[in-house]
Amino acid sequence: MISIPRAFSRSLIYTLVLISAIYFQSLTLISNGEPLLQGSGTIGASREISLLFDDELQQVQKKIKWHGERLTEDTVYAAALTGQSWYTEWESHRLFSLTSEKAGKKGDLNKFDQILRDAETDYQIRHSAWQTAKRSGRRKEAIVLGLSLIFASGDESIRHDSSPLQFVAASGVDVERVCLGILQAPEGLKGFVNFWYSAANLLSLRANPRLLPYLLHLANSDDTFLRSRAILGLGVVGYQSRPADPPDWARSIISVPLHEYGLSVGERKLLTKAILEAARSDRHLIRASASTALALVAEDESMPLLQKLAKDRAYILSSEIAGTRARRISFPVRSASMIGLERFSVISNTIGGEYSGKALESAKRGGQDVSNDHHNLRKDSDSILCLENSQGMEYAK
Q1: DSSP reduced 3-state for 355
Q2: Which residue has the higher pLDDT, 159 or 324?
Q3: pLDDT digits (tens, 9 = 90+) for 346-380
Q4: Mean per-residue pLDDT for 73-80?
Q5: If you average pLDDT over every residue of the chain, what do you get?
Q6: Pairing label, strands 368-369, 314-320
Q7: Is residue 164 part of a domain?
Q8: Is residue 93 within 8 Å of residue 148, measured between CB atoms?
Q9: I want to staple 189 with a disulfide (CB 3.0 to 4.6 A). Which of 77, 108, 185, 334 is the partner?
Q10: What is the pLDDT of residue 21?
Q11: C-alpha distances in angstroms, 269 versus 122, 211, 259?
C-alpha cells in the first residue's frame, strides 16, 4: 500500500531514530495487554468490546478464508468489528455495498450521479437497520451497522451525520484502531482495500500524538490521497493556538475540535519537515492539505510559504449547473492558504464562485485546470466518490 521513495536523504537515519523513539515512548501507554491505541471509550469499555466480539476475533482468519500474508492484530480487530468476517448483509443489503466494479468503471456524469443516488438509498436502508438494532438491544449488530455507516457513507450531504461515529465510540470501539486495521489490510483483502480512503480521512481528523509514527510513515505514500490525509493529520497533531486567532477560525478550515498537544522538539521537527515537503508537491490535493497543515501548526516562518501558496494556479471546474450555463470554479490550494493567512492578520478577497461566458474565462485565465487530475489515485476505492470540499477536494468523476 505504502512505498518509501527510492531517493533517501542523508538525514534518513536521524529521522528513523526519532520515529523509533516516539514509538517506544508510546509503548508505555500499553498495560495489561491493551492495544496501543485506545479510542474514545475507556479501557474497561474496550475490554467489554473484546469480550462481546471474542468469537469473531478468534475466527477472522478462518471465516474470511484468507491464505495470504499474516493479518495484523489491528486488521483482525477491524474485520471482526465491521462484520467483514461474519456479518456482511442486512436483509440482502450489503453493509459495505458499493462494489469496486461500480467505483472503478469510467462513465458519464449521469452514470456517476446514479451511483451516488444508489449509495444514498443504500445508506438510508442501513441507517434504518442501525436504528432498529439499537432499539431492539442488538448491540453487536448495531456496532457493525454503525461502522458500516461511517466507512461506506455514500453521498457527501449525508456524511456529516456524526451520530453513528458517536455511538460506536461511546460503545467502547477503538475507532482509530479500526481505521488502522483497514489501512494495514493487504491488497488482496478487497473488502477493506476499497475503504482505505474513508479510513485515512477519518484517521487524519482524529489524529493524536500516538498516531504520529504511522502518520509520518503514511506521509511517504505514493498514493496522492493517502499522503494528503497523512499531512492533514500531522497538522491536526501539531496544531498550536495563537492569541490573535479570529473567533471560530478553526471551523472555517477543519470540521473537528482541535487540541494542543505537548509535542517534543524532535516530534515537531519531524512533522514540520513532512508538511514543508508536501507543500512543494506537484499534486494539488497534497499542496491543499499542506496549506491547511501549515495554517494549523501556525509557525511564524510559515507565513511566506502560505503567501506563495495563496497564488497557486490550480483550479477545479464543475460541470454546468442545472438549468444554467454557469459553472463553479474553485481554487483549493489558494482557499486553504488564504484561510490560514487570516491567523497572521492577512485578509484576502474571496476567490472562486459561479461564472459563465467571459466572466468564467476571466476567472480561469492564468490558472491550471486540475479537475481531471486523478494521478496516483485508486480507481477501485468506493470512498473516492466522497472527497471533502473543505480540504480542497471535489467529486472525482
Answers
A1: strand
A2: 324
A3: 887 768 888 889 999 998 999 999 988 888 887 75
A4: 93
A5: 77
A6: parallel
A7: yes
A8: no
A9: 185
A10: 43
A11: 45, 16, 18
| Cell numbers at 298, concatenated | 501556525
State the chain's maximal CA–CA distance in angstroms. 67
Q: Quick check: is 361 in a domain?
A: no
Nearest one of 311, 314, 305, 245 to 275, comparing CA atoms: 305
pLDDT level of residue 384 (50, 70, 90 thresholds)? very low
C-alpha–C-alpha distance, residues 254 and 234, integer Å: 13
Q: Domain of residue 110: give its range.
A: 36-194
Instruction: Report residue 235 as a C-alpha cell.
Output: 497538522
Crossing angle between the packed helical segments 265-279 and 224-237, to the nearest 10 degrees? 140
Residue 189 grid coordinates: 483483502
Q: Contact, 332 vs 288, CB < 8 A?
A: yes
Question: What does the pLDDT read at residue 34?
Answer: 35
Q: What type of residue is 158?
A: I
Q: Tell me what pLDDT residue 159 has.
A: 53
Q: What is the pTM of this model?
A: 0.79
What single letter denotes the amino acid at residue 30? I
CA 5 to chain CA centroid, Å, is 22
Q: Which among 321, 338, 332, 336 has a CA at the least distance from the CA of 369?
A: 332
For 67, counting Cβ atoms within 10 Å of its Cβ (0-12 exposed, 13-18 middle, 19+ buried), the class is exposed
Position 284 in a domain: no
The verdict on residue 153 lying in a domain is yes
> pLDDT-based confidence at 260, cuts 50/70/90?
very high
Sole residue written with cell 493567512? 341
List strand residue ranges (DSSP E) for the chain, in order. Answer: 89-90, 93-94, 314-320, 327-330, 353-355, 368-369
Sequential DSSP letters for 297-323: H--GGGHHHHHHHTT--EEEEEEEPTT
Distance in angstroms (rounded) separating the CA atoms of residues 361 and 359: 5
pLDDT at 91: 59
